[in-house]
Design goal:
This is DUF885 domain-containing protein. By secondary structure, the chain is mainly α. It folds into 2 domains: about 230 residues, no CATH class; about 270 residues, no CATH class. The chain has a 3-stranded mixed beta sheet with strand order 2-4-3.
């Protein structure tokens, strides 16, 4: 390649191609190489190979001509920031202790199957091969965690214990049966395989299930005892590094903590107003418990899935043409029930680059089979439309105008979660929560994300609760205190609250990106509106903002303001 043809975009896309060739999880996510049956290489060598790709791309970026094109400059800045943040995590050994209840490396060996096509015999042959390769992937991951033990880099016991419980859901052992042919997620996944492939698929699923069971036993018998005494909190230095990786920003943690307390008091006042409209004189917690037990609910998994699908379809019809331009694949998003052993909260899975796999939202199954809806409306605006699905799908449609890296591998968590929280607030601005129960659900979601900033920073840095907080003033944050704080001011069920605390402690600096990202999106819109005055076109601004690709929070406000 001649030097004059080397640009940040070509370097970024070449990096993406190299990552996809190395990592089958990335390849499957992008919809590439459908016959690939590899599993991710979770061994120390696998992580080092991935890091070496980042080093080479940074070197290529350093050697490339300085671009004059602002679009090239934006791509260069994102690529440099993302790869630098990634290497900072790798070179301080974070991969050796990355064992957590949300976003764990181990989840890839199962979630990769949900990204695969499953129509033809050839598709199912690739599934069978990937199932047979799953034990080797877990062996590599065991080697990484073993190296972490030898280096004194371990996850906290509560994270290890949480993953052990999740793996029991994968194998079916949490339901009381032993791992076997008829037990667990893998057996269920291959049940829809073609008739010709079924014997091979059943055997491969059994092998995968047994490998997961054996890995779980190793975590229980070897890793968990070794992790004893490892603290939950990571401290300021590790937290800043993790926060940079998740937000694309050099944060002032004390400013963010204090700002979140202001948001807490503002949101709490609004919640109390709505609670009084629903159940006068009852108080906030009693009102939320009332909605959970006696408010509108949908019974049964299929009914809940259909109800959420209808909600997203209605949102598309409401918003198209007035506040967004929604056409073609942007209108296609599927509602699904999440498999057992997934994260405790709803989540979204983006489309492939060719849209052959559409965007999908996932609702965790509940044992009682009844789904209260007072919170779900706002959550599905977040996960579906105009939240994650609209952003991810629009990114895919403009991939040819940007670099593919900017709309896939280069994503910044705080940007996408900030947009999704902005989307919830935007729907509130449009009056979509006119029913008090639904608006309380929206505000409760805002409160949860505000609590995340307070307790995530507070627990990991050991900060004190402010004297004027109204809640245990002067005490230092712990997991137990954070759980009590959530129980006092958030309507999530107890199991969800516990899972949330596990998440914050295991994935430092990620959960704060929702509110800090929303703040950046709102600030950017406000500054763009001030700049344009009466000529400001919100629909045009939305579509331009969603067509930028990924940006870290250090760059997001300025970029949005300039649109």
């Amino acid at each position: 390649m001649a030097n004059e043809s080397v640009t940040p975009r070509t370097i970024a896309d070449r990096h993406l191609d190299q990552v996809a060739a190395h990592d089958p999880m990335t390849s499957a996510w992008l919809g590439l190489n459908p016959g690939d049956d590899r599993q991710p290489d979770l061994s120390p060598d696998g992580f080092e190979a991935h890091a070496e790709l980042a080093r080479r791309s940074l070197a290529a970026l350093d050697a490339a001509p300085v671009p004059g094109d602002p679009a090239e400059q934006a791509c260069a800045r994102l690529l440099r920031e993302r790869l630098t943040a990634e290497l900072a995590m790798h070179e301080t050994g974070e991969n050796y202790r990355q064992l957590r209840t949300v976003g764990a490396h181990v989840e890839q060996v199962r979630s990769i199957f949900t990204l695969m096509p499953t129509t033809t015999d050839e598709d199912w042959a690739a599934v069978a091969g990937r199932l047979r390769n799953l034990p080797g992937a877990l062996d590599g991951y065991r080697s990484t965690l073993t190296e972490g033990i030898s280096r004194g880099l371990l996850a906290a016991p509560r994270q290890a214990a949480g993953v052990i419980g999740q793996l029991a859901d994968w194998t079916g052992e949490s339901a009381g049966q032993g791992a076997g042919r008829d037990a667990g997620w893998f057996a269920g996944f291959v049940a829809d395989g073609t008739e010709r492939m079924r014997p091979e698929l059943d055997a491969a699923a059994l092998r995968a299930t047994r490998a997961v069971s054996e890995f779980r036993e190793w975590l229980r018998d070897t890793y968990l005892p070794a992790a004893a005494g490892t603290p939950d909190a990571v401290g300021r230095e590790r937290y800043l590094r993790a926060a940079r990786h998740n937000t694309g920003a050099e944060l002032d943690l004390d400013e963010a903590y204090n700002w979140a307390w202001d948001e807490f008091h503002r949101t709490l006042a609004e919640m109390r107003v709505e609670a009084e409209r629903i159940l006068p004189g009852a108080g906030l917690l009693e009102t939320m418990h009332h909605l959970e037990e006696h408010g509108h609910a949908v019974k049964g998994e299929e009914a809940a899935r259909d109800w959420l699908q209808q909600l997203m379809d209605e949102a598309i019809s409401t918003l198209d043409g007035s506040h967004f331009d929604l056409s073609g694949p942007l209108r296609k998003v599927e509602s699904r029930i999440a498999p057992a052993g997934s994260a405790s909260g709803p989540y979204y899975q983006g489309p492939s680059l060719d849209f052959s796999r559409p965007g999908r939202t996932f609702l965790p199954a509940l044992e009682q089979g009844t789904y209260p809806t007072w919170q779900l409306v706002s959550i599905w605006y977040h996960e579906g439309v105009p939240g994650h699905h609209l952003q991810f799908a629009q990114w895919v449609t403009v991939a040819d105008r940007l670099s593919r890296y900017q709309v896939t591998e280069g994503m910044v968590s705080a940007n996408i979660e900030g947009w999704a929280l902005y989307a919830e607030r935007f729907m509130d601005d449009l009056g979509c929560f006119s029913e008090p129960a639904r608006r309380l659900g929206f505000l409760d979601g805002q409160m949860l994300r505000t609590i995340r900033v307070i307790v995530d920073i507070g627990m990991h840095l050991g900060l004190a609760v402010p004297a004027d907080s109204g809640f245990h003033p002067g005490e230092r944050w712990t997991g137990a205190l954070a759980a009590e704080f959530m129980a006092t001011y958030n309507g999530s069920p107890a199991a969800r609250r516990d899972a949330e605390i596990d998440r914050y402690l295991g994935w430092p600096g990620q959960a704060i990106g929702y509110k800090l990202g929303e703040r950046a999106w709102l600030q950017g819109r406000a500054e763009a509106k001030r700049r344009h005055g009466a000529a400001f076109d919100l629909k045009a601004w939305h579509m331009k903002a969603l067509s930028q690709g990924s940006l870290g929070l250090d760059d997001l406000v300025g970029s949005l303001a300039a649109l």
